[in-house]
């Protein structure tokens, strides 16, 4: 540290005559953090100092300072006020308001917040960020340490700038969006801020992270509506393409969820649960008014119970319809591949039988008639292996996909995602299937080909996401092939390493084809979840049994 970095409090006070009661409260690398009071309005503030000669290394570049000065002009009830950004003596500094509320990182100090309050808090933060987005300013570094919440859940404030811009993204924990962690998006985008706010909402609702909750929908952990599930699931979708792209659209869906936080009719203003006793002609001594309330309470209880039953039935039907739609979509994709494979098979079968064109009288050779080529699959079709005679068994009709997590999973992490045929390495295209962690049990992901359709398997290709803090690292996992009696026919253990790409690829080529009923991918540790982007199971095309001609009758 340079000598100028050890200035006394008197020297610091001389550099900032607009402040009083300056006290050092902490350091973060070259940054020093002071509490103080503004002389102009007696507001409590935080003063952050970085030696100017180290500012670029810390991330406080001239561009960062210019962007921070633009934030000074902004003011919103969901954002902590930034009073001043500039240089004083040997330091670059930021003066911002000091919130007395606990931070989101200190969740144990915050009591349980009702769904409607959590939605309102996040909406207020989103509206504050929207004022910045309209100016082309994106936060890009929202963390639990930069969000303060009033203990009663009535208010929350966000520091509108990332004061640690040079820190690795992994230090942001689960709040770093996948495209920022992998480097697929080198610049800040609205989607990164929306992702962080979506996680904030999930934590406020459930008091846990998606990974700790095994990627369960909020409605499976607390009482909340499908609108809440929908807005959370879309906001934290790992694919930027499937996530909200605009903060205004996010706010619109938050408003819908606020109107129906627990399902049923729109929320009405709260009324006191106990009304003053209604006395006719004055109560007699010792007389109780309990009957005035007992009958209405019973009626209300019956209505609420009946409403809850209908609501649960509606939710079950909606989820059943969704699963049916996913199954139909997967079968349609598989049908495209099946038709392409069938066309290729017929082309190879008929090619030798094409009669040759007789040569003309002249001895000029004629070119052979080309064999018919199979129709090219549609662009949206699953990946088809280039090797002739190989079939991707994981996308064939009748295949069933399962995983160890039995809870209502977030839509972005369903088991069908790993067999949708998408092998793109672009993060904007990748879909992910993730499992949770169950104490004492290894997480697993399986593909069942069917008892009557055991498939010859000779190559397995597994695509796993890079080191995403939200999903886990897939550090070690086993791949096993089973027969109908669940005997292990073959197995192999893989160890993946983090990559700068959005996916890592692990390939297992067997020495010879193994006819298997099912494939299972299993974590080697109960503490590790699974996170897959695609699983492909290749094998040789099964040839039809040749028809044998009937034996000739013996002549007596």
Describe this structure in words.
This protein is an alpha+beta fold. The protein folds into 3 domains: 1-98, Phosphorylase Kinase, domain 1 (2-Layer Sandwich); 101-266, Transferase(Phosphotransferase) domain 1 (Transferase(Phosphotransferase), domain 1, Orthogonal Bundle); 387-540, Jelly Rolls, CATH 2.60.120. It is 27% helix and 21% strand. The protein is built from 9 helices and 18 strands. It has helices spanning 9-15, 52-58, 62-72, 115-133, 178-181, 190-206, 226-235, 247-259, 291-350, and strands spanning 19-28, 31-38, 44-51, 82-88, 91-97, 147-149, 156-158, 390-392, 400-403, 433-434, 444-448, 455-465, 476-482, 488-495, 503-516, 518-523, 531-532, 534-540. The strands form 5 sheets. Strands 1-2-3-5-4 form a 5-stranded antiparallel β-sheet. A 5-stranded antiparallel β-sheet has the order 9-11-16-13-14, with no helix packed on it. Strands 8-18-12-15 form a 4-stranded antiparallel β-sheet, with no helix packed on it. Helix 4 (115-133) packs antiparallel against helix 6. The protein is elongated and about 90 Å long. Residues 365-375 have a biased composition (Pro residues). The chain crosses the membrane at residues 290-311.
């Amino acid at each position: 540290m340079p000598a100028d970095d050890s200035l006394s409090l008197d020297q610091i006070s001389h550099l900032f005559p607009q402040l009083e009661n300056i006290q050092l409260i902490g350091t973060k690398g070259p940054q020093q953090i002071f509490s103080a009071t503004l002389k102009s309005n007696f507001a409590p503030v935080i003063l952050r100092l970085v030696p100017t000669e180290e500012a670029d290394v810390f991330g406080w570049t001239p561009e960062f300072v210019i962007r921070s000065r633009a934030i000074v002009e902004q003011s919103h009830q969901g954002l902590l006020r930034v009073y001043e950004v500039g240089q004083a003596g040997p330091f670059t500094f930021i003066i911002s308001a000091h919130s007395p509320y606990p931070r989101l990182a200190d969740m144990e100090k915050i009591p349980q917040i009702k769904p409607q309050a959590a939605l309102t808090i996040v909406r207020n933060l989103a509206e504050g960020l929207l004022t910045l987005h309209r100016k082309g300013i994106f936060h890009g570094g929202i963390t639990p340490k930069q969000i303060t919440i009033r203990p009663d859940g009535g208010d929350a404030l966000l520091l509108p700038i990332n004061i640690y811009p040079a820190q690795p993204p992994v230090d942001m924990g689960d709040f770093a969006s996948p495209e920022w962690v992998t480097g697929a998006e080198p610049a800040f985008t609205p989607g990164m801020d929306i992702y962080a706010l979506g996680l904030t909402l999930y934590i406020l609702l459930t008091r846990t992270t998606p990974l700790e909750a095994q990627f369960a929908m909020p409605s499976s952990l607390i009482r909340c509506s499908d609108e809440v599930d929908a807005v959370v699931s879309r906001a934290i979708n790992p694919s930027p393409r499937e996530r909200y792209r605009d903060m205004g659209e996010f706010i619109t869906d938050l408003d819908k969820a606020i109107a129906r936080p627990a399902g049923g009719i729109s929320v009405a203003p709260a009324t006191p649960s106990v009304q003053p006793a209604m006395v006719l002609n004055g109560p007699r001594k010792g007389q109780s008014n309990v009957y005035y309330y007992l009958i209405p309470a019973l009626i209300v209880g019956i209505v609420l119970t009946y409403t809850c039953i209908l609501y649960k039935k509606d939710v079950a039907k909606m989820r059943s319809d969704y699963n049916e739609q996913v199954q139909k979509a997967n079968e349609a994709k598989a049908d495209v591949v099946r038709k392409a494979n069938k066309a290729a098979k017929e082309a190879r079968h008929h090619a030798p039988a094409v009669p040759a064109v007789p040569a003309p009288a002249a001895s000029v050779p004629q070119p052979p008639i080309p064999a018919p080529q199979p129709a090219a699959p549609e662009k949206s079709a699953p990946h088809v292996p280039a090797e002739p005679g190989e079939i991707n068994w994981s996308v064939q009709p009748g295949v069933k996909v399962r995983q160890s997590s039995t809870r209502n999973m977030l839509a972005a992490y369903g088991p069908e995602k790993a067999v949708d045929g998408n092998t793109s390495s672009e993060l904007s295209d990748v879909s992910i299937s993730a499992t949770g962690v169950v104490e004492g049990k290894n997480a697993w992901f399986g593909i069942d080909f069917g008892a009557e359709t055991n498939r010859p398997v000779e190559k397995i290709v597994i695509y796993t996401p890079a080191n995403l803090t939200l999903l886990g690292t897939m550090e070690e996992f086993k791949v096993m092939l089973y027969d109908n009696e669940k005997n292990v026919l073959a197995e192999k253990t893989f160890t993946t390493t983090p990559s700068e790409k959005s996916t890592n690829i692990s390939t297992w080529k067997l020495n010879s084809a193994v006819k298997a009923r099912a494939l299972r991918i299993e974590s080697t540790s109960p503490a590790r979840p699974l996170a897959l982007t695609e699983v492909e199971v290749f094998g040789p095309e099964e040839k039809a049994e040749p028809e044998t001609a009937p034996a000739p009758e013996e002549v007596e």
